[in-house]
Design goal:
Radius of gyration: 26 Å
Shape: globular
Number of helices: 16
């Protein structure tokens, strides 16, 4: 996921167009190693580019590895196992009217029932406790990226301590972030076709719209009918209404192209997208194109579970577990050599809950495993997949 210097786009988009990219307005969940390597914009200081996406706000979750306290702020070093970044976290301002509020409470006496001033005070105390961390605590930070003294840092707009005794939050984030990279950050930002004023770009935009609708249509069909396997001609009829409505809205969208050709092209691209996402796969590559639906493939689910169950019984894997490539290789030998990493990743998201059913005592496992090693393991797992 790391950004290489050669990956940065030499020609930045004009700053007036940055708002068209949804990533610009959101808190980007980037790995710290990427935050440290992204380059600053030449047009606007304080804005950075991950590939073609303009970024100035980030969301980071990691372990505090050092702490420095000043009069007005804390400096926390946050480590997410990919890198360490300095986070500038401002202290809460002291209430200047604290004495006045105390006097008003004394004058009013001890009133029965709900006291909003007391409740606000309790909330403020709880908030202050959650913003004072020690080394080893888990910290979540949202803020803007800055460069100070040639070093990258985050100026926090909000931060708090995360209570995560069994590391559920960290594991969930490690599984979520590769999806964000794959579906969002690693995709280049493209201008909407209508804004370019080009007939070719407009046609491309309409095709991408049809493609997104056809992908969604097939996903809904697989889920509703619980389809386990299919052939292309079994689902071809689902795309007929899309082509017909598109032809009615835009006459002569593809001059000289027949209806059947448009259906075949759209179906081919739709199946490619679903395979890239790991939603479907071909167990055996033959002339008879048979696709398996990953979510409904019980045999694949059983194969992964059996591999995990058998490996947990082996002495050499009992303490630290086995490498993800070993699991992937075992599943391919047992189930299908054509199993892609995308399918394995998609199924591993569902099979993650199997860990809880296979391992008899999860708390014992978490206590035995080193916290940093477990985080690095899941980071390596997501990188490999």
């Amino acid at each position: 996921m790391a950004v290489n210097p050669g990956d940065a786009d030499a020609d930045e988009l004009p700053s007036v167009l940055w708002g068209l990219d949804p990533v610009f307005s959101a808190y980007s969940r980037l790995y710290i190693t990427d935050i440290l390597q992204i380059k600053e914009s030449r047009q606007v200081p304080g804005v950075y580019f991950y590939k073609t996406h303009p970024i100035f706000k980030v969301d980071v979750l990691g372990t505090v590895v050092y702490k420095r306290e000043r009069e007005d702020f804390y400096c926390y070093g946050v480590d997410d196992s990919t890198g360490v970044i300095n986070c500038l976290c401002w202290k809460h301002e002291k209430c200047s009217d604290q004495g006045e509020s105390t006097k008003s409470r004394d004058l009013s006496g001890c009133s029965r029932g709900f006291n909003i001033e007391d409740e606000l005070k309790r909330l403020k105390e709880a908030e202050q406790k959650s913003t004072v961390l020690e080394i080893g605590d888990l910290l979540r930070v949202r803020g803007t990226v800055k460069t100070s003294r040639d070093a990258r840092e985050i100026s926090a707009s909000s931060f708090y301590k995360v209570n995560d005794p069994v590391m559920a939050e960290q594991i969930s984030r490690m599984l979520e972030m590769p999806q964000l990279y794959r579906k969002c950050y690693d995709h280049p930002f493209q201008m909407p076709g209508d804004d370019l004023g080009s007939t070719e770009a407009g046609g491309s935009s309409r095709f991408h719209y049809l493609l997104s609708r056809s992908v969604l249509t097939l996903k809904e069909f697989f889920l509703e009918k619980e389809v386990a396997r299919f052939r292309p001609y079994d689902v071809e009829f689902l795309l007929h209404p899309l082509i017909q409505s598109s032809s009615a809205e835009q006459e002569s969208d593809q001059p000289g192209t027949s209806f059947a050709t448009q259906i075949r092209n759209l179906l081919k691209e739709t199946l490619n997208v679903l395979q890239d996402e790991g939603q479907i796969f071909r167990k055996i590559r033959t002339q008879d194109e048979v696709y398996n639906v990953t979510e409904q493939d019980k045999d694949l689910h059983t194969a992964i579970k059996d591999v995990l169950r058998e490996d947990t019984k082996r002495e050499k894997y009992a303490e630290k577990g086995c490498h993800v490539l070993h699991v992937l290789s075992s599943v391919r030998q047992r189930y299908s050599q054509n199993l892609s990493r995308e399918v394995q990743h998609e199924k591993s998201m569902q099979t993650y809950s199997i860990y809880l059913s296979i391992i008899p005592n999860v708390n014992y496992l978490f206590n035995r495993l080193n916290k940093l090693l477990l985080i690095e393991y899941f980071y390596c797992l997501t990188q490999m997949l």
